[in-house]
Design brief:
about 75% helix; mainly alpha; 2 domains
């Protein structure tokens, strides 16, 4: 069987049905999504060169749709981890902003104490 008939994702199968073979740009996009499917399923490994392709496709709707379809539990865990990371990043930003505000306040008081005007 060929690369187009070995596709596991129903999303990709439906996408192929709506694309004409003569449309090379769309065919190349499908080839990229097949690459994504193979990475998700563990049929291919990321090499130095292929990681560029993966990163270009990483945040696309299509990748998320394929991932959700083929590995729903893993996709759900990744989404949970992303939410946790975003919350942690927000907490760190808030802490940094508070530290900057306190430093500004200390500097202002020191300025006044040294005889400076506000």
């Amino acid at each position: 069987m060929g690369k187009y008939t070995n596709i596991k994702s129903n999303f990709l199968k439906e996408k192929i049905k709506n694309i004409n073979w003569k449309n090379k740009d769309e065919r190349e996009k499908i080839d990229g999504l097949i690459f994504v499917e193979n990475i998700i399923l563990g049929k291919e490994r990321l090499s130095w060169a292929s990681s560029f392709k993966w990163n270009a496709l990483k945040n696309t709707k299509e990748l998320k749709t394929i991932y959700r379809e083929l590995k729903p539990e893993e996709f759900a865990q990744i989404k949970k981890d992303e939410v946790k990371e975003a919350a942690e990043e927000k907490r760190k930003e808030s802490k940094l902003e508070e530290e900057e505000r306190l430093e500004e306040e200390r500097d202002r008081k020191d300025w006044v104490k040294a005889g400076g005007n506000l």
